[in-house]
Amino acid sequence: MVSVTRSVVWFSEVGREDIGLVGGKGANLGELTRAGIPVPPGFVVTADTYFRFIHQNGLEPVIKKELFGLNVHDTRQLNERAENIQRRIKSAPMPAHIADEIRAAYRELGGGPVAVRSSATAEDLPEASFAGQQSTFLNVVGEDNVVRAVQACWASLFEARAIFYREESGYDHTKVGLAVPVQRMVQSEISGVMFTVEPVTSDRTRITIEAVYGLGEGIVSGEISPDLYLVDKESLQIISKTVTPQDRMIARRPDADGSHEGANAWLPVPEHLRERQKLTDAEIRELARIGRAVEAHYGKPQDIEWAYEQGKFYLVQARPVTTLKAAVEADEGEEETAPILLTGQPASPGVGVGLVRIVHDPREIDIVKQGDVLVAEMTTPDFVPAMKRASAIVTERGGRTCHAAIVSRELGIPCVVGVAGAMGLEVGREVTVDGSAGRIYDGRAEARLAWYERQKERYARAAALKTTTKLYVNLAEPELAEVVAKRHVDGVGLLRAEFIVAQIGKHPRQFIEEGRPEEYTRRLEEGIKEFCRAFNPRPVVYRLTDFKTNEYANLEGGAKYEPTEENPMIGYRGASRYLREPDIFKLELEAIKGVRKEFKNLYVMVPFVRTPDELRGVKQLMSEQGLVRGDDFKLWMMVEVPSNVLILDRFIDVGIDGISIGSNDLTQLVLGIDRDSEALADIFDERNEAVMAAIQTAVTVARRRGITASICGQAPSVYPEVTEKLVEWGATSVSVSPDMIDQTREIIANAEAKLGRAPVH
């Protein structure tokens, strides 16, 4: 984590641990830069600088006075108070030393056009992804103009829509800061949005790409309906392509001399490009490969904004996808007899019915009452209060990644976008909106409404099912612990330490050299405690740190401690590291001991153990620190190396309570395939008969020896048939990603019923 008193920091100096300093957008741009992802260079005017500006100009009492007694649902009052605050912020003098630092950073960046963006310290967080609450200024040229744009971004923290959002989300207005990233402007020939998951169905095996000509504002706002490409995440094969003609785009208007130094404007797309696919197939695969790398870096699905200029892709933003949920299937149920009025792209699953209310301008949103169907050409953040009241949302323009789609998924409201003729619907007419299938029906579509109710009941029943086979969840992010713990799960089957360590941000050896090893232990302990506290008394199986050398090298100070390996995936990792660097391993064990003083539900799992002697050595080091197997402390071993399967009895003889199969690494090593290899992605499959035979052997041996047998790899989260086989073979538990909890519980229950096993009560 960077600690600065300067007004400006560079992208290369910050990462995801610096949200409080540079906001969500700034932290992600820094994180991507440090990870070697192509990002246009830039700097951030910190949130601390914003707070200093507010304090030095005595603006906090002004802001509090305007917000006191404000009813954010009174649109007129909200807009009036918001304008008053913004006017005071814009008219306040910018302190000279702050302005000088911004000007100097702009000169160091090389001058020329830049994008000046807002990055609130409470946006782009895992639990909050409402887009576009504050302002962005593009093609800003000149030192003084950059300074003015920064101040305008600060003022936009009090846009009416931003005040409404914070009030509804429970954020303290005076505690939320605003950082301002200033980034070299990419003059996009093509741009768009990419989800490393199918955002409507939550299908994690696919990457969704939307593309338009020109700058990306057209696609995010919903002004332009984009091309849509679906790509298989593993093989990078293109599954489908929907090409949408485009006759206008947002781009820089040429000046009179023919240069492209003018302001952004709507310009015509050259006629020979209008009907053409925006990206070639090779470019689609290249972009998907970048997206896959970003997801791998963060360890969870990402929502990415990208731009293409002069043969190169750039990422201008990445944030976690926060709307993953149990998907419903659009092709089930009785045939619907209600007439279909219009069709479009399914954007948020579910079915809603109500009276049509057509909103031409956000100032008209008060006409939308509770339970109405909101219809608009497109939505902006100003529409959010009305969207919350609507039973469903329909837009005439936009794709699956436009504002209406993203916010609808966040709110859990059915939505269909890109509906030609939507604004011609009769006001007050009752319609049914099927966000799962992309259809608008006349009147009440009883069959679809009944189908959706059955889907909700189905998943509600699944959430209440009792099964003999335990259902655990894979987790890494501490901020998700409380939310997921409320679900019907039996515990955490895989708590990955790497995310906690990444948030700490510094190599543990660096803490030791600085004479502060206890700080590393304390912060690791705090991160683990969040999970144990949330799930107590259910077990939390903590996998000891399994960073590879290239990942450790990315931590602060890591490059000087880590060797360079040709293939870190099968290199210096797991149990081997603990035995060779016992001083670092001791820091982790001290953290585990600290947690267990308060929470006895913490178990430990040893990853990547190549030999029984390695396992024996790890147990000895744990014993020296007072961590010994017992009735309330279980020790598991990951089964991910073929030797674990071939001589599993010998590993069990060393003394363990259970195994958990890491299907990702096991598949890699059984088939001899680098799981990150694009060339071999089409044959990397956990369902391969050799891999399945290895899994069956491991489960069978574990059961014969009387220890627990689980799986925590990706396979059961992606392939239901793998879960069915695990139940058949006698696995004691299955651990899956949070979005697969309800479906997997149902799969387990059905599999147990086929085998004649009585459910537990």
Automatic annotation (TrEMBL):
Keywords per UniProt: ATP-binding, Kinase, Magnesium, Metal-binding, Nucleotide-binding, Pyruvate, Transferase
Residues in Pyruvate phosphate dikinase AMP/ATP-binding domain copies = 21-333
- The protein's organism comes out as Tepidiforma thermophila (strain KCTC 52669 / CGMCC 1.13589 / G233)
**Which PROSITE patterns does the UniProt entry name for this protein?**
PEP_ENZYMES_2, PEP_ENZYMES_PHOS_SITE
InterPro entries recorded for this chain? ATP_grasp_subdomain_1, PEP-util_enz_mobile_dom, PEP_synth, PEP_util_AS, PEP_util_C, PEP_util_CS, Phosphohistidine_dom_sf, PPDK_AMP/ATP-bd
EC identifiers of the protein: 2.7.9.2
Q: What is this protein called?
A: Phosphoenolpyruvate synthase
Q: Superkingdom of the source?
A: Bacteria
Q: Where is the PEP-utilising enzyme C-terminal domain?
A: 464-752
Q: Which GO terms describe its biological process?
A: gluconeogenesis
Give residue ranges for domain PEP-utilising enzyme mobile. Answer: 369-438
